[in-house]
Amino acid sequence: MTLSSRTKYYITETICLLFILLFIYASASKLMDFQHFRIQLGQSPLLSAFAEQLAVIVPLFEIIICILLLIPKYKPLGLFLSYGIMVMFTAYIFIILNYTSFIPCSCGGVLEKLSWQSHMIFNLAFVFLSVLAIILYEKKDKSLYFKKGFLVGVFSSVTIASVSVVAALFMLSENIIHYHNTLTRRFPQTPIRQIATSDLKLNSFYFAGLDSSDIYLGNTTAPLVITKLNSRLEQTQRKKIDLDNKKLPFRAASIMVEPPYFFVTDGTVPCIFKGKIDNWNAKLILRKGEYFTTARVIDSNAITAVSAKRTNGDNVLAVIDLLDNGRTTLNPEILQKQNDGVFDTDGMLVYSREMKRIIYLYAYRNQFTIADKRLKIDYRSSTIDTITKAQLHIENDENFRQRQFSKPPLFVNKNCAVFGNLLFVQSAIPGRFEDDKIWKHSSIIDVYDLRKKSYVLSFCISDLNGKKMRYFKVLDDKMYVLIGTHIIVYKLDSKITTHYASQSVDNLLAK
Question: DSSP 3-state assignment of 373?
């Protein structure tokens, strides 16, 4: 059936009106809630790196198309651009559903009620309408512009260009976000799920260690008491550790459990005790050597610690060999001095048993260092935060003959944990496109792949009764958290666990 010119005209005008209504509504909703729209783009797994620019370009482009559709002379161009942008939106959703690590929240407005699959069908319907309008559009002078062969060529070119633009943005954004990130976080939906919680009645506990079946808690107010919980967070043992030498001047005793052994250390003495968890009796195995602060177990015969240079007191990373009479190996190259060598190199020390690597994360700058058990540096890297130099104000207190902060320091990293090749960092710096409410009511964890030297994703640990997370540990697909007086266990989703390396230890750091 051949349509009359009047029928074609009405169909074309109706389709143009639909596009005008769609783009006016879409651009207006974006601009009226611009901050929210920009945050949504920032959380997109395709466009995170370009959210700042696209938040302006997209609604502006939609308004321009509306203007072109209202001017008879430029209506064909407006229809082709309508077709192009709907192809882009469709390609965007297709990549989201099939090629990204997670699916973000939908866009705002009425379309927010649609699922991603329904949204894709909606877009395809408008792609069809744009094609129909272009084919039915008639002009008095039958120029090359509307010849069949020319239309096919234009449709092909616009389709290829639209899909290519979206694909290019995706690949560029992925590279920037994972390897050249400037504080743009990705928050996939529900990467963790709470599976157990228990009230310990005290807020002085810390993680001494854990394995697949038990959790071991130390207590800062009772330094030699160990509390053991099972996987259901039920207390199965509470024991006071028996030391074979109790007359030492303890000031900072702490417990580290590495089944079947445990250690009691105090770097201010300095001393190290070792025993077995089956009886919780410990013998003094080190009573001399370098003073140290933070310490972590490497294996049953070695401990890594943050020590101090005897010449100037600067922090230095050390490995203490318990089989060789406490012989201490120091590498002053690992901790890089920026100012005073003490406060500016303060940080967190963890050890990955799977990688057999020591990781040191600075507290006041966006850097960490990976080294092996002999303190040979593998590489240095950065978190996604942009603060490369510690922002500290330190003055000498003549009365007490010590250096102190004259202003509160700016924390970049608050805490960290490691399992396998993944480093979990509790950040202190809000990122771009993030709502302040997130930071007021939760703690943010950034995940990094140490093997690929890349950022993976971020997630939130909600506050509990107004209290923020104090300590956390990760083991396999479980995350253990201490908040106030409570201990909480979360299960890690495949969005996180699929990034665990399956290669042998020797290949974990292969380039």
Answer: coil
